[in-house]
Every structure is written in C-alpha cells, then in structure tokens.
Amino acid sequence: LPSLTMAELKAPSFATSYLQPYHIVNFLLLVIVPLSRCTFLNEILFNVPRGLSPEETQAYSFLGVVLAIKARRIASTDAYLASVFSLAKVAIAYVLFRLEVAYFIFYLLACVATYLFFPAPVVNKNHQVTLVTPQRLENILGASREGHKNAFAFVMYAAAWSGSSNLMGRDFANLSIKYSKGPIRFVKIDVGQYPDVATKRNISTATLSKQLPTFILFRNGVEVRRRPRVVDGNVYACRFSQDILEQDFQLAEIDSGVFDDADTFEEDGSSQDQAVEDRKNK
User: Fold this and answer.
1) Is 211 exposed, middle or buried (0-12, 13-18, 19+ CB in 10 A)?
2) Cα separation of 205 and 158, whole Å?
3) Are 239 and 12 in contact (CB under 8 A)?
4) Half-sphere exposure in the Cβ direction for 183 (13 Å, CA)
C-alpha cells in the first residue's frame, strides 16, 4: 500500500468541517426554543403548559415544508444552511412573539449579535481563481504545454451541490491570493455542470463520491499530482484545509522555484495513466 499523504492522514468525518462558530451558534438559536418548550425549562421560562401548541406545530410544519422544497433546488450546502438558519429564525421569532414579547425582543437581539459577531464564512472577493468552461480549461493547459518551461496550473474540480467543494472553495481562494505573484495559476471548474470533464479525469460525480472536490496540479500541461488519490480503483478519502493543500502540493516550493516532483505518480496508477495520455496528446 502507498504511504499516506498529509490530507489522507487527517481525513476524519466531513461533518467536522461544519463545526465552525457560525454553524454552532446558529444551530443553538434554532433548537433552544423548541427544546425549552418540551423540557423542564418550559416551567421556568414560559407560563404555559409544557409541549408545543397546535399553533407552534403548524408554524414548524410549514417551515419544514418550505425547507424541503428549497432542498430540491439546492445550489450549495452553504446556501441551503443559510436558508435554514434564516427561515427557522423567522418561525421561532413568530412563536416567541405569540408566547412572550420580552423573549421575542431578546431573541431578535441575539440574532443580530450572531449576525455581527459570527458571520458566515465567505470567499475572499479579491481571489485570483479563474472559473472556466471545459474549452477554456483545455486552452489554459494547452498554453502551459507550449509556453514557459515551468508553468503550473492548480485546478479544483468541484460541484455546486457538494458541501465539501463549497467549503474548500474559500481555502482555495485564499491560496490564490497568497500565491498570486508566483508561477501558479489557480483554476476552478464545475464538474457537476460539465460531467464529461470529470469522466476524462477519472473523477466520480456521484452523490456519495469521495472525489469532490478533486485537486490536480499540472506542470506544463501535464498532471503531476492529485488529491484525493485513486490507487487500484480505491479512492483515498481526504480532509482538506489550506495548510494541507500547501504541504501536499508543495505550493511554497513551487513559488520559490524548488518544486520536487520525484514522487509524482509512482503510487497513483490512475493519475499515471492520465499523465501518459497527456504526454501522447502533447
């Protein structure tokens, strides 16, 4: 078996990526009122019988229907979570207004404080990531083959509906800013929109795929490294972060001109086949 990379060694459940302050605080705002109404806290906080009233049940049921409809039109996990947090707060604020105006006002203040001090993670607007179509991607890789001796393209193959793709989009954007003056070109393509590109690069776009996102580093138009790796048909699942991407792809070394690709494809059969194909096309 091949030795594990930094990304593979740090690959626990993807769910941990959502345990950021923004998600935790908003989740608490969503559950605090329904839980209080159904537990001993109800007798302490509210002067009404324990349990959800028909009016509360109706409000939460309507919320569930709306969220179910939005889930079918989901553009990204981050966008859907933002909708869940916003709409649920509206429903809870309505319930509190009917129960106790003082608690309603306090809840609104808590929501405002959350918005100010725990903002949603966003992609830096100054990023240097080029969003491309398949033809544009081929043009970039083709220009690398014919251009400079050491032209690097770092490509993120993502999907709009993939939560991990959306999360890593922020780190990828930050890296593009950090290395904006170096020889690395940062590129992103939506393989959910262009599945043929995923097929060409042996990337699965299935709902439960462990290959979204996939990061591939090209040197002079030839693939030299990818994560997650595919070895003998087995996908080595990764947990990515900005630091892990920097280390696994040696971005700092590339930036300083001392990139060492000695271990490029010796352990990754599928990537090696792709590299051979690229060399033939060249």
Assistant:
1) buried
2) 9
3) yes
4) 21
CA–CA separation, 28 and 30 (whole Å)? 5
d(C-alpha 86, C-alpha 227), whole Å? 35
pLDDT tens, per residue, the chain with 282 residues: 455 455 544 443 445 557 788 889 999 999 999 999 999 999 999 989 999 999 999 999 999 999 888 776 555 566 678 889 999 999 999 999 999 999 999 999 999 999 999 987 666 567 889 889 999 999 888 876 565 667 899 999 998 888 778 778 888 888 998 888 888 999 999 998 999 999 999 999 888 788 888 999 998 888 999 998 888 778 887 777 788 888 889 899 888 887 766 544 434 434 433 433 443 343
> What whole-number distance in Å separates Cα of residue 33 and Cα of residue 52?
10
Q: How far apart are CA 151 and CA 247, in angstroms?
A: 19
Q: Which amino acid is at 78?
A: D
- CA pair distance 86, 84, nearest whole angstrom: 6
